[in-house]
Design brief:
This protein has helices at residues 15-21, 23-26, 41-51, 62-67, 84-93, 108-121, 135-146, 163-171, 178-181, 185-200, 231-234, 245-250, 257-260, 272-279, 367-386, 397-415; strands at residues 6-11, 31-37, 58-59, 74-77, 97-100, 125-127, 152-162, 206-214, 298-305, 310-319, 323-330, 333-338, 343-349, 357-363, 421-422. The protein is globular. It has 3 domains: 6-127, NAD(P)-binding Rossmann-like Domain (Rossmann fold), CATH 3.40.50.720; 131-218 and 293-422, 2-Layer Sandwich (Dihydrodipicolinate Reductase, domain 2), CATH 3.30.360; 220-285, no CATH class. Helix 6 packs antiparallel against helix 16 (397-415) and helix 10 (185-200) packs across helix 16 (397-415). Helix content is 36%, strand content 22%. The chain has 425 residues and is an alpha/beta fold. The relative contact order is 0.16.
Length: 425
């Protein structure tokens, strides 16, 4: 590989791909965007103009790109979950390394197939588990590696998905129906959290997984009497329902712009009336209780590790506010943290007279957290491709396989009444 910037192609011009590609504008000496593969003509044109990509390096899809002579080092694959494997394998065979959005597969067979393809081609695949790079979790990992809290006994993580996020992504949006998107709620939203648990446990592998969950809230029988099918068309509760598309989207037009208003991308300066008309037919304008969603709105996962340690994760959808929390208990102390607040407390056992524990507070700035994680991930990918030293957060496909297998088994367990299932690596 050349000593200059890593030459990268965007495959699937969605929100995450474009977020990672911003690195090329900040560090031109490290990364250069030289191509795009995107089926939407307008979005492909927009990306080409943004990065000055010549017409001959613009493609309709990953397959067309894979058939062209190789002209870059790597790709950022931000396609939808269910086509990650089918789009990545041809690119590996064409000689590209891949930065692949999570989850990298939607079932165990796909996951093992892709891992084998990476081994067979000798190419590098890094998975976008960006939370490993967020300052919050990097600090927690460093404390564990320091040995301050001793050996891990238990890890508990929880994710509260806000009511407006739940509505937009998992009841009305792209990930609301596993028959269509092929991802469960746990896989689409919480594979991050399961990955954090397995990553923090280091070399100790999960042995058994059990899970329970269901959809309690977002069901037709919970719709208010006399409610309509589309909020802005035939519903008398449009001004009072907590999930009214008027209240969630028209009154907050900038909150979920990349999802809700995607059909207005080609209209310069869309008006409120443009948005209102779109919601009369858009999936985001449907009654929250009468959508075609089939995913859970809450789920709990229990993991038994091979050394007897335990891990648990709770996902609660429809919460008043969105946040992640974590507690890690070791033989010498514990760690507690709130991701949204960026605050971590490390408590070390101290039985001295007048004492119980010694606390250390760690505050993580907002920039260091998720946003800083995006850029740190891309920097690590560049180092990974170039054979340079990578960080402890590096998410190779081999290192990410274990957490994916754990998620798949958790959902299988949930579908079978919580039966514990063995993790086979």
């Amino acid at each position: 590989m050349e000593n200059g910037p890593l030459k990268v192609i965007i495959v699937g011009g969605g929100h995450r791909s474009l977020t990672y590609s911003e690195y090329a504008l900040l560090r031109k000496d490290r990364m250069q965007i030289v191509g795009v593969a995107e089926p939407d003509d307008n979005r492909r044109k927009m990306i080409a103009e943004k990065f000055s990509i010549p017409e001959e390096h613009c493609f309709h899809d990953a397959l067309a790109l894979s058939r062209a002579p190789k002209f870059a080092d790597a790709v950022i694959n931000g396609t939808m979950d269910h086509i990650h494997v089918s789009t990545t394998i041809p690119l590996l065979e064409a000689g590209y390394d891949v930065l692949l959005e999570k989850p990298f597969a939607v079932n165990e067979q796909e996951a093992r197939t892709l891992a084998e393809a990476a081994r067979k081609t000798g190419r590098k695949v890094m998975v976008c588990f960006v939370l490993r790079y967020a300052g919050f979790y990097r600090n927690i990992k460093d404390v564990i590696l320091s040995g301050k809290i001793g050996d891990i006994i238990d890890i508990h993580t929880s994710e509260y998905v806000s009511y407006h996020h739940m509505s937009t992504s998992y009841v009305r949006g792209k990930w609301n129906n596993s028959d269509k998107c092929h991802s469960t709620m746990l896989l689409a939203k919480c594979c991050h959290d399961i990955d954090i648990i397995t990553w923090l446990m280091g070399s100790v592998k999960p042995q058994l997984v059990s899970s329970f969950g269901s959809n309690i809230q977002y069901r037709p029988e919970n719709a208010p009497e006399g409610s309509g099918t589309y909020c802005l068309v035939d519903c008398p509760y449009v001004d009072t329902c907590n999930y009214s598309s008027k209240r969630l989207y028209l009154d907050h037009p900038d909150r979920w712009v990349v999802y809700v208003w995607d059909k207005l991308e080609n209209i310069p300066n869309p008006t409120d009336e443009d948005r209102r008309e779109l919601l009369k037919t858009s999936p985001y304008g449907r009654c929250i209780y009468k959508s075609d969603n089939n995913v859970v709105d809450h789920q709990s996962v229990s993991i038994l590790f091979e050394n007897g340690a335990t891990g648990t994760h709770s996902m609660i959808g429809g919460a008043a506010t969105g946040t992640r929390k974590i507690s890690v208990t070791g033989t010498k102390g514990m760690i507690y943290g709130d991701f949204e607040e960026g605050k971590i407390t490390v408590s070390i056992i101290n039985p001295a007279p007048g004492c119980e524990k010694d606390d250390t507070e760690i505050t993580v700035s907002e920039h260091e957290n998720h946003g800083g994680g995006d850029l740190a991930l891309v920097e690590d990918f560049i180092s990974y491709c170039k054979g340079e030293e990578t960080s402890v957060s590096c998410t190779s496909i081999e290192g990410s396989l274990l957490s994916h297998l754990t998620v798949f088994l958790a959902d299988e367990s949930r579908e079978n009444g919580g039966a514990p299932l063995k993790v086979i690596t």
